C-alpha cells in the first residue's frame, strides 16, 4: 500500500452472540488483514444495550479506523465477507442478534447513496454504541450532513454503555 493513495475509513464492529468479545477482537485482526488496508487504531470495547429491539443480549461494540486504497464498495463487500466468516446470516431481521456486524460508518468525506451502501452511515447520529467508541478515535471528526462526533455524542443517551477494556490499540 506504500504508493497507493489511502482513504481514511471508520468501521463499526458489534456482536451479541457466541462469545461477542472474541468475535469483535478477531474481526479487528481481520480488518488489518484486508488487502490494501491497514488498521490504524481501534477504540476500547464497550458493552452496550441492544438498539431497536430489547429482547436480545447486550452487544459488544467498537470502532476501528483503517487506511485503505480500496473503493468504498469494495471495502464494504470485504466487510460483509468477514461477517460471513463469523457465521453472520442476513435473514432480513432488522436490529436482531448477530455473531458479527461490520458497518462502514464513514469513508473520508464521501457522501453516497446507492443500493446497499449509504455514506456516512444513515443512523450514525442516533447511536451511542457507535458514537462513544468513535469519539475515542476522532472526537472532532465532521460527519458529512450530521455534525461533529463530540456534539452528536452529547445529544444521545449513553445509558448502559460500559467500557470493557483499558484502551484501544
TrEMBL record:
This is 2-amino-4-hydroxy-6-hydroxymethyldihydropteridine pyrophosphokinase. Catalyzes the transfer of pyrophosphate from adenosine triphosphate (ATP) to 6-hydroxymethyl-7,8-dihydropterin, an enzymatic step in folate biosynthesis pathway. It is an enzyme of class 2 (transferase). Transmembrane segments: none annotated. Its EC number is 2.7.6.3. Keywords: ATP-binding, Folate biosynthesis, Kinase, Nucleotide-binding, Transferase. InterPro entries: Hppk, Hppk_sf. The gene is folK. Gene3D superfamilies: 7,8-Dihydro-6-hydroxymethylpterin-pyrophosphokinase HPPK. One of its GO terms (molecular function) is 2-amino-4-hydroxy-6-hydroxymethyldihydropteridine diphosphokinase activity. It comes from Dokdonella ginsengisoli. Belongs to the HPPK family. It comes from the Bacteria. Pathway: Cofactor biosynthesis; tetrahydrofolate biosynthesis; 2-amino-4-hydroxy-6-hydroxymethyl-7,8-dihydropteridine diphosphate from 7,8-dihydroneopterin triphosphate: step 4/4. Residues 94-105 form the 7,8-dihydro-6-hydroxymethylpterin-pyrophosphokinase domain.
Amino acid at each position: 500500500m506504500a504508493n497507493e493513495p489511502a482513504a481514511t475509513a471508520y468501521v463499526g464492529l458489534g456482536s451479541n452472540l457466541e462469545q461477542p468479545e472474541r468475535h469483535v477482537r478477531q474481526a479487528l485482526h481481520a480488518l488489518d488483514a484486508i488487502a490494501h488496508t491497514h488498521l490504524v487504531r481501534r477504540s476500547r470495547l464497550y458493552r452496550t444495550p441492544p438498539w431497536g429491539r430489547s429482547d436480545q443480549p447486550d452487544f459488544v461494540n467498537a470502532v476501528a479506523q483503517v487506511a485503505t486504497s480500496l473503493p468504498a464498495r469494495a471495502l464494504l463487500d470485504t466487510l460483509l465477507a468477514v461477517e460471513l466468516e463469523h457465521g453472520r446470516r442476513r435473514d432480513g431481521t432488522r436490529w436482531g442478534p448477530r455473531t458479527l456486524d461490520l458497518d462502514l460508518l464513514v469513508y473520508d468525506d464521501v457522501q453516497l447513496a446507492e443500493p446497499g451502501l449509504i455514506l456516512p452511515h444513515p443512523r450514525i447520529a442516533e447511536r451511542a454504541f457507535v458514537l462513544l467508541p468513535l469519539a475515542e478515535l476522532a472526537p472532532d471528526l465532521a460527519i458529512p450532513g450530521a455534525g461533529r462526533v463530540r456534539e452528536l455524542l452529547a445529544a444521545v443517551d449513553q445509558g448502559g454503555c460500559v467500557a470493557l477494556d483499558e484502551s484501544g490499540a
